[in-house]
Amino acid sequence: MSELALKSLDYSVLQQCMHCGMCLPTCPTYDLTKLEKHSPRGRIALMRAIADDHLALGPAFGEEMSYCLGCLACETACPAGVDYAHLFEVARSDVEKSGVMANPVRSVVRTALLKILFTHPRLLRLVGRMLWLYQVTGAQWLFRRLGLTRLLPAKLRELEPMTPTVLPKFSHQLIAPVEQPTGGRRYRVGLLTGCVQDLVFADINRDTADVLLANGCEVVTPPVQPCCGSIHGHNGEHAVAQVMARRMIDLFDPFTFDAIITNAAGCGSHLKHYGRLLADDRDYAVRAREWDRKLKDINEWLVEIGFRVPASEAAEPQKVTYHEACHLCHGQKITKQPREILRAIPGLELTELPESNWCCGSAGVYNITQPATAAVLQERKVARIESTGAPVVATCNPGCHLQLVNGLRQADSKVRVTQPVSLLAQAYRTEPGATNSHEQK
Amino acid sequence: MTANPSASASFLSQQLRGFVPGLEVHDSPEQRAAYAYDGTAALRAEPAAVVFPVDTAQVSSVLKFAAARRIPVVTRGSGTGLSGGSVPVDGCLVLCLTKMNRIIEVDAENLTLLAEAGAVTADVAAAAAGVGLFYPPDPGSMKISTIGGNVAENSGGLRGLKYGVTRDYIMGLEVVLPDGEVMWTGNKCVKDVAGYTLRDLFIGSEGTLGIITKVLLKLIPPPAARKTMLAVYDNMENAAKTVSAIIKAKIIPCTLEFLDKVTINCVEDYAGIGLPREAEALLLIESDGHPAAVEEEAAAMVAIAKANGAGEVKIAATAEEAASLAAARRTAFSALARVGPTTILEDATVPRNRLPEMVRCIQETARRHNLKIGTFGHMGDGNLHPTFLTNEKNQEEMHRVELAMKEIFARAIELGGTITGEHGVGLAKKEFLSAAVGELNVGVMRSIKSAFDPQGILNPGKIFDPRP
To answer: pTM score, two decimals?
Structure first.
């Protein structure tokens, strides 16, 4: 198997891990199992053993790469600066190429999801629309009520209650292709509407546009946007990820924007590495590097441009706590900005969440591929949230958002889940004398 | 090794599972590859199987099994050791104690804490702090290192100067001997001279005499006040002179830590806490104790630092700032891997009045062999960690590292020092042991080893080679 990317990888990336073990206490899977192979250091040792021909790439390695959350807490802990995210993507890609995990069902599901559904945005919206119909017509209620979920295969039956509620309107029905701020334009930004975010949290995309407009940004939001490829990159589909990146760059020429904004942390931590993904592509490499420079998480951008603090109406402060999306705090090292935004909102009092940067178990598609471990992490997170006594928890990623909603519902908790950008948008809307902050073109 | 290690490994595991019911045994190629190393650079060997006992009885059974078949057993905690002490020997059983991690008792009347060997050092310290007490030893890896591993290596830390090392806090040990017998040595008494103090033999024995399964620790009241300072130097020798001068002035601060320019920059790259990147050397100084004494001691040390060439002495404004400085210092060794992927770490220690000479020797030796080096360490203990920043794939450079290492050790011994202050001998320092302590000492050590472990099954080939 000489074609393995782990073997052709610059060996110094693997060697960078000097196995000191500083990552171990921050790894959720090591914490659960106390087994070295379920730790970042152990996983890198396995990758290196494969690169050095001490170990063959087999199903057990494939399972290990699937068991890793990819939360990147190890990167935050690593004094040596090991690029685990890169190693992990290369390893997962090798697992797919080697075919050690292949079985007919898995292959059909992966093709349907990664290669068909998440590469065709219109098809994804159509599926979303059907799911919405199923939910609003009462069919879902009836289906559950009649106990028909029993007829589903076991795996689907476990996942059915996690089905997110689809919103009646998607992003393009809420946001015009170009919107101008009323108070004069300071910046021109592109807005990425995402996949899950578009179907389930289009209102948060609207909030994001509103907040940008309120801060002097012209917002450009193409109505049909491709998937950014993060789901492909994180799941071993390197070539598809490259295709999606090219489409995205075609849609948003980075040289024409001051910033390109994402509000989904999981996407953001992938989107910021188009430069590396397309480094060998002569036609795209230059634009991809510029893209990396322009790509900003919404929280990061707002703090960078000095967002306007909403005017306050004296009110009883409400407690809010903050769960850090792994791919924001570990993947993008953005920790202070969302807190700064929350603290700036009148009427909110930020209460720190214990273990705020411990993974909630969502981890991309982890709650589908590894439901048992995801559930343990979800319960742990819910308990920590409840311990703060805050009635609201804010987070910055659709996956975490859904995971928290589901976990809190299962625990019969009254805690509401939202995002910092939505709270900020709400604060702008309720300012004394607030008017519509944008006009649609 | 046999022709098919996997087959023999699984046969062994099958037998072991039969002999010790309920024992967690792993022997897949992936599991064995994941236990082929510890925190030491460039050492690798695969065990036949890895076992995770959950109580002393299981440890005892595993040893009875191994003794009857003369299978080597290498004990391991979290695998953060820095001398190869817990690197497997080919075909051995790795006995991993991370699942024996309970803190059994905190006795606030006798100021003791009883924990299983696999308890994490930071958890032990937190349990002590939970009842208003203090467990001082704080090795760099304390967030994950196990207390049993600390005892086996007699680990130091950043507070050794005033508070001593792990040995100074061990009141008793439960040890499983190589034949499976379970022995208690020590107790909660402050004084005890009933026979040989056997517990002391196991401290720093690197898993060669018995397997430590429980540890009874001494706790002390915490200091009432702390003051942390950072002295900045434009040459390394002045930092060393400051340390010698502080000791000579009869001041024993809690911490006197040293970082050179390469280390400062690596740590700053990681931690981003505003360390002065242009400085040639830094001393991290901490005084603790009664508030009045702390003030007085701190003022005296600032004066001594300035008199010995410190450009600036910054005082940490808050407890958080002080803690972040100490935390950053703990990352020094790992952060150095940013410069070179293979970090060959030394642990030479000299009497404190010889520090300036030792520092000079390290700099000159690195220069002469054209090697990149980062030096940090517990200067107040005379314990330096010159770290060669190299690449194990570059054999020619690795050879120069070996030569430089030999010269540094020789000089340390010449100055009345030792080859290892706190990391242990393990595999990495084995060839230098007799030069450091002499043949007679090594002979006595071998006799002790034979008395406890006549078959030589516990961590064979560590510290010294078996008697031929």
So the answer is: 0.93
